[in-house]
Design goal:
Elements (H helix, E strand, L loop, with lengths): L8 E6 L5 H12 L5 E6 L5 H6 L9 E5 L10 E6 L2 H13 L3 H8 L2 H8 L1 H17 L6 H6 L10 E5 L3 H17 L3 H14 L4 E7 L3 H16 L4 E9 L6 H8 L5 H10 L6 H29 L5 E5 L7 H13 L4
Parallel strand pairs: 1-5, 1-6, 2-4, 2-5, 6-7, 7-8
Antiparallel strand pairs: 3-4
Helix pairs in contact: 1-14, 3-6, 5-6, 6-8, 6-9, 8-9, 8-10, 10-13, 11-13
Length: about 350
C-alpha cells in the first residue's frame, strides 16, 4: 500500500548534498510497478539522470531508460526520462499556443529565446513547470503496449511523473512562479496556462517531498522549506532521510562509551581470543573511534527528533558504501516501496 495513492506528480527537493536526485530516481523506479509508466524529469541542466543510469546525455525528448522494481507477481513497469531545458520548452510553447511555425525557428536563430530566458529568469521556470504540467495532464492508459506506442502524435502517457526539482532554498519560487505570472497576465493563453499549472501544483494530485540528512543545517533547511511550502499553499509530501549510517553499536554499548565506562581489559581479552595482536595503542584507538561514533549517533538522534516533529510521513534510506549505480537504485527503490512511499 502506498501513502500517496492519488498523487500523479511527485516533486523531490532537498538541500544540495542530501542526494535528492538519487532519491528522485529511486522513487521513479519504485513507482514503476505492475506495468505502470513513470516519467522522471530534471530541470537543472546537470544531466544527473544520464549519469546515474549510465546512458547517453538526454535530449529534450522522452526516452525509456529502465524498468522498475518488480512487484509480488513479477510485473515491472517502465521509467522514461526527460531533460527539460527552457529554450526547447519555449519553442514548443510558442508552437502549441501561438502556432508560430517557422517564425518560432526564426526567433531561435536570432537569439530572441536566449534573450528572453536570460533577461527574465522567471520565464525559465514558467516554461519548465509548464512542460511537467503537460506530461502530468496526459490521460492515463493502463495498457503498457498502447502506452509505449503513445497517443496520436507520439506522446506517451504516464501513471506518475517524478520531478527532480531545484533545492529547498528555491523550491517555492520555482513552483510559485506561475501564480505571479497569472497575476500579471489578466487574460489570454498565458493567463489560462498559468492558472492551470497552479491548480495542479496546489491539488491533491501533487506532493512535494523533501530529502534531508541527519545533520543540523540540512534538517533546519528542511524545516524552513516545509514551512514555506505550507505558507504558499503547496502540498507537502513526505520527508526522506537519506544517507543513514548503520547502527554499529547497541544502545547499551553507546551509553557505556558516552559515560566512559568501557572495559579496556575485556576488549583486549576478546581481541586476543579472536587471535588479533593487541597492544594498548590499538585498544585506545578502538575506544576513540567508538566515542566518535557515539557522538555522531547522538547528533543524528537529536536531528531525527526534529524531523519527526514535522508530523509528516518519513522514510529512511541507508548510506551505500558501493556508491550509486542502477543496481543500487533498484535496492533503494525496494526500500521505498517497503516503507510505503510508492
Amino acid at each position: 500500500m502506498t501513502d500517496w495513492p492519488k498523487v500523479r506528480l511527485h516533486v523531490v527537493t532537498g538541500k544540495g548534498g542530501t542526494g535528492k536526485s538519487t532519491v528522485a530516481a529511486a522513487l521513479a523506479l519504485a513507482l514503476a510497478t505492475s506495468g505502470k509508466n513513470v516519467l522522471l524529469c530534471e530541470v537543472e541542466g546537470r544531466q544527473g539522470i544520464a549519469r546515474m543510469f549510465d546512458v547517453d546525455p538526454l535530449p529534450y525528448e522522452e526516452r525509456r531508460i529502465a524498468k522498475g522494481a518488480p512487484d509480488e507477481d513479477g510485473r515491472a513497469g517502465q521509467v522514461h526520462a526527460l531533460h527539460i531545458e527552457p529554450e526547447s520548452a519555449l519553442m514548443e510553447y510558442l508552437a502549441m499556443y501561438y502556432k508560430l511555425g517557422r517564425a518560432g525557428k526564426a526567433l531561435d536563430r536570432f537569439g530572441v529565446i536566449d534573450f528572453a530566458t536570460t533577461i527574465a529568469p522567471g520565464v525559465r521556470d514558467v516554461l519548465l513547470t509548464g512542460k511537467v504540467y503537460e506530461a502530468v495532464q496526459r490521460p492515463r492508459q493502463r495498457d503498457t503496449k498502447r502506452a509505449d506506442k503513445g497517443r496520436k502524435g507520439g506522446a506517451i502517457t504516464y501513471d506518475a511523473v517524478v520531478l527532480d526539482a531545484p533545492p529547498t532554498g528555491r523550491i517555492c519560487q520555482f513552483l510559485g512562479v506561475n501564480s505571479e505570472l497569472a497575476g500579471l497576465a489578466k487574460v489570454g493563453p498565458v493567463k489560462t496556462q498559468a492558472d492551470k499549472v497552479m491548480e495542479l501544483l496546489r491539488s491533491p494530485r501533487t506532493a512535494v517531498h523533501v530529502v534531508t540528512i541527519l545533520e543540523e543545517m540540512p534538517v533546519q533547511e528542511t524545516s524552513d522549506g516545509i514551512a514555506e511550502l505550507r505558507a504558499a499553499g503547496l502540498p507537502v509530501g513526505g520527508v526522506v532521510v537519506n544517507l543513514v549510517r548503520p547502527r554499529a553499536l547497541s544502545p547499551h554499548a553507546l551509553a557505556q562509551v558516552r559515560d566512559d565506562e568501557v572495559d579496556a581489559t575485556r576488549i583486549t581479552s576478546d581481541l586476543t581470543r579472536a587471535r588479533v595482536e593487541v597492544d594498548a595503542g590499538l585498544v585506545a584507538s578502538l575506544i576513540d573511534e567508538a566515542r566518535d561514533h557515539a557522538v555522531r549517533r547522538q547528533l543524528e538522534d537529536d536531528q531525527r527528533v526534529l524531523v519527526e516533529a514535522e508530523h509528516l510521513p518519513t522514510y529512511e534510506l541507508p548510506r551505500l558504501a558501493t556508491g550509486i549505480d542502477r543496481g543500487a537504485l533498484l535496492d533503494l527503490a525496494q526500500l521505498l516501496r517497503a516503507q510505503g512511499m510508492a
